């Protein structure tokens, strides 16, 4: 994990106890450095991008020290309890980046419905205008109301759309994701091209929830591609 600007600035003014309380929530990592003066490689235990014990001659020694230090500090009842969200130092985005590091898709458009108003953003208006039956299932709306949404856009009654979404409790996250078509190979080694892609709109009440849906859709789409490739190989 790499610290962001807010976390770095907070650590500059945090007390020793606050720093420890922040660090012990992280996972142990062993980082490598080179001692040019002695021409030797060194190893250091880190957690949340903060060093916790200097440098050691072997990764095993660094790991042993790091595990012992973290265990001791996690049992220290005198440490403060940090409200990381309130302090602005939560690692939510870093955790998501790590979770989706191997993702095969990317987000093209992100719309937070709670932040909309009667004057819809162009992307939301475009989505509703082009929404078909399958897209209507993305929004948990009855088919008649989904059709009504489209009609309001076409009839230039856009100021009625946001109230309708609110009436149905739709305040979450609507995203458009893109994924390249897998053209050859197996799950272990494959070729794909961003010149040929799939697009999919997804909705969930939380950002984490919509990313989870995106990952599930991505995995299923990749599985379908591999099945098509395998079928072609068998038919050849």
Descriptive report:
It is a single chain. The protein is α+β, with helices and mostly antiparallel strands. The protein folds into 2 domains: 5-90, no CATH class; 106-235, no CATH class. The protein has 10 helices and 6 strands, in the order H-H-E-E-E-H-H-H-E-H-H-H-H-E-E-H. The protein has helices spanning 5-13, 16-23, 59-74, 84-87, 92-99, 122-130, 133-136, 143-154, 161-167, 207-235, and strands spanning 28-35, 40-47, 50-51, 106-112, 173-186, 189-204. Strand 1 (28-35) and strand 2 form a beta hairpin. Helix 6 (122-130) crosses helix 8.
How is the secondary structure organized here?
Blueprint: H1 5-13, H2 16-23, E1 28-35, E2 40-47, E3 50-51, H3 59-74, H4 84-87, H5 92-99, E4 106-112, H6 122-130, H7 133-136, H8 143-154, H9 161-167, E5 173-186, E6 189-204, H10 207-235
Antiparallel strand pairs: 1-2, 2-3, 4-5, 5-6
Helix pairs in contact: 6-8
């Amino acid at each position: 994990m790499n610290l962001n600007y807010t976390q770095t600035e907070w650590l500059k003014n945090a007390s020793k106890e606050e720093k420890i309380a922040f660090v012990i929530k992280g996972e142990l990592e062993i980082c490598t450095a080179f001692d040019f003066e002695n021409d030797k490689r060194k190893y250091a235990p880190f957690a949340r991008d903060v060093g916790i014990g200097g440098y050691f001659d072997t990764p095993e020694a660094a790991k042993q020290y790091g595990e012992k230090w973290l265990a001791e500090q996690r049992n220290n009842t005198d440490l403060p309890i940090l409200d990381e969200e309130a302090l602005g130092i939560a690692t939510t985005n870093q955790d998501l980046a790590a979770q989706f590091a191997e993702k095969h898709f990317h987000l093209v458009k992100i719309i937070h419905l709670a932040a909309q108003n009667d004057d819809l953003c162009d992307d939301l208006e475009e989505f509703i205008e082009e929404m078909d039956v399958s897209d209507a299932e993305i929004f948990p709306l009855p088919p008649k109301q989904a059709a009504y949404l489209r009609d309001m856009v076409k009839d230039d009654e856009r100021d009625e759309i946001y109230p309708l979404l609110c009436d149905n409790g739709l305040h979450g996250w609507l995203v458009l994701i893109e994924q390249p078509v897998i053209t050859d190979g197996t799950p272990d080694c494959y070729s794909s091209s961003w010149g040929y892609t799939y697009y999919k709109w997804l909705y969930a009440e939380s950002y984490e929830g919509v990313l989870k849906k995106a990952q599930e859709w991505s995995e299923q789409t990749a599985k379908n591609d591999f099945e098509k490739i395998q079928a072609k190989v068998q038919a050849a």
